């Protein structure tokens, strides 16, 4: 009887792990079978994902990316709002098939999930009063630069302008106000955030400008469950097709391009994250 017990335990355990591996290997097939791609996006992250006040639907750049990927997989995107804290656990636990949620690449996150090719690159910049005449980042040496506490901007300032004094504020509005009030000579944030803040100034928006070049960049990828090679390959194939067809450019132009308040140029392509 003891011998039978010893033999059965590894057999049962082997069957369990075999079944688990089979489930993991079949995510792409499961998505196609059910006909929907559960796509997690942030819903308080304009213009990437936010709730439209008219339709009450979640819309934005990331939503359009999800819809375009789903179309190429032959399914329909099911957009699911997710919080910053819960996005990776929700993917890992199988509650989401894909994340388009401002996932900047980091080695730590890459140990938890698989990243698709880049679908967006966020530049971290320093803005200043146009009247100061700063023509390059080097001109900000020894100057005071505001940033939001806890953001990546502090690291970028210290790395790229080591003699500058980085002054942290609790939120982006007060950090920008410090620049407007002359308490600092520069203000560091993402390019998207600066353009949004400047747009609120109306005719006075031209009083502020980005000092070139950018001091940092965050490369965003779509999040795929770890080990889902077929799913990752299909998502990357979709992104490459979107790039070749011009759809990725069209989505960028719709939400961030010259005709929007952001007035940004797309300086990146869908390519593997290095």
TrEMBL record:
Gene Ontology process terms (BP): amino acid transport
InterPro entries associated with the record: Bact_solute-bind_prot3, SBP_3_CS, Solute-binding_3/MltF_N
Domain of life: Bacteria
Cellular component annotations (GO), alphabetically ordered: extracellular region; outer membrane-bounded periplasmic space
Span of the signal peptide: 1-25
Keywords: Signal, Transport
Domain Solute-binding protein family 3/N-terminal: 36-259
Keyword Signal in annotation: yes
SUPFAM superfamilies named in the record: Periplasmic binding protein-like II
Family from the record: Belongs to the bacterial solute-binding protein 3 family.
Protein name: Solute-binding protein family 3/N-terminal domain-containing protein
Taxonomic placement: Bacteria, Pseudomonadati, Pseudomonadota, Gammaproteobacteria, Pseudomonadales
């Amino acid at each position: 009887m003891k011998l039978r017990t010893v033999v059965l335990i590894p057999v049962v355990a082997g069957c369990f792990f075999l079944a688990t591996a089979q489930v993991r290997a079949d995510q792409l097939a499961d998505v196609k079978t059910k006909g929907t791609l559960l796509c997690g996006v942030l819903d308080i992250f304009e213009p990437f994902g936010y709730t439209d006040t008219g339709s009450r639907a979640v819309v934005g750049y990331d939503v359009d990316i999800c819809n375009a990927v789903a179309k190429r997989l032959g399914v329909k995107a099911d957009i699911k709002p997710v919080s910053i804290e819960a996005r990776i656990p929700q993917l890992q636990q199988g509650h989401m098939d894909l994340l388009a949620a401002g996932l900047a690449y980091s080695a730590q996150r890459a140990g938890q999930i698989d990243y698709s090719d880049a679908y967006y690159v966020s530049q971290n910049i320093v803005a200043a009063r146009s009247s100061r005449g700063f023509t390059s980042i080097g001109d900000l040496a020894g100057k005071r630069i505001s940033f939001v506490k806890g953001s990546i901007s502090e690291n970028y300032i210290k790395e790229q302008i080591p003699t500058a004094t980085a002054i942290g504020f609790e939120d982006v509005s007060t950090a920008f106000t410090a620049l407007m009030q002359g308490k600092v000579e520069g203000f560091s944030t993402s390019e998207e955030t600066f353009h949004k803040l400047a747009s609120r100034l109306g005719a006075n928006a031209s009083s502020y400008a980005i000092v070139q070049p950018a001091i940092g960049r965050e490369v965003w990828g779509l999040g795929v469950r770890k080990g889902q090679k077929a799913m990752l390959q299909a998502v990357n194939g979709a992104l490459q097709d979107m790039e070749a067809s011009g759809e990725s450019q069209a989505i960028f132009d719709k939400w961030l391009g010259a005709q929007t308040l952001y007035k940004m140029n797309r300086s990146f392509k869908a390519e593997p994250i290095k």
